[in-house]
């Protein structure tokens, strides 16, 4: 629903509501009626109708008169961000080589609030119940890339994260206590990589390493994920981690050579 908290005088409520209408659509709800959009956003039917018809006029939404759905033009909104990044373009050929070497799926993600957001991915067989695409978000606390990105946060930013984040349990193995997560992050920073074993989803095991910009700041993370039936924790360390570290080094070298802006990688 549209947030009702106080905003600064610079906050444009109509823009926020229009974006809320766009976000009401999802893979689970690709087509919505006017009433469903109003209910999902907290808008009145009249307001929802105005926003929907405006989006139709602009080409971001299509309708058959009863159902509304996003149009392909809405991709322009995300492409403006992705096109400003050199990271996905630079990383993709390296991910493809990595996947060919280890025969497991590989991804790159950045931190956005309490979530990781996928910005590049090369998949093999599907190993999760949900489909992972560019823009997919998962909670940082129970993902290998999230742990890497959290481990290298400045101390004050990590403290703020631990105070506000909901450390939800997704499986019986999910770390949900702030003190335990802090200890795990210290271990990740010390060893230089993170392994998460079936904390996001039963059967999913992943290992991740940082991607650093030229200044040394960790701006993104790269992982390899596999099904626990195929890869033990020990075999992941022995067989996957060396390839992952070598790939990360090649990506970093290319990013530095192209002068990629770290601020663009993680904003």
UniProtKB/TrEMBL annotation:
State whether keyword Transcription regulation applies. Answer: yes
Q: List residues of the IclR-ED domain.
A: 73-257
Query: Could you tell me which residue ranges the HTH iclR-type domain spans?
Result: 12-72
**Record SMART domains:** HTH_ICLR
Q: Transcription: present as a keyword of the record?
A: yes
The GO molecular function terms of this record are: DNA binding; DNA-binding transcription factor activity
- Offer one Pfam family short name for this entry: HTH_IclR
List where this protein forms a coiled coil.
Answer: none
> Keyword set for this entry?
DNA-binding, Glycerol metabolism, Transcription, Transcription regulation
Q: Which GO biological process entries does UniProt record here?
A: 3,4-dihydroxybenzoate metabolic process; glycerol metabolic process; negative regulation of DNA-templated transcription; positive regulation of DNA-templated transcription
Note the superkingdom of the native organism: Bacteria
Q: What does this protein do?
A: May be an activator protein for the gylABX operon.
Known PANTHER family for this protein?
Answer: HELIX-TURN-HELIX TRANSCRIPTIONAL REGULATOR, ICLR FAMILY, TRANSCRIPTIONAL REGULATOR
Instruction: Report the protein name in the record.
Output: Glycerol operon regulatory protein
Q: What is the lineage of its organism?
A: Bacteria, Bacillati, Actinomycetota, Actinomycetes, Streptosporangiales
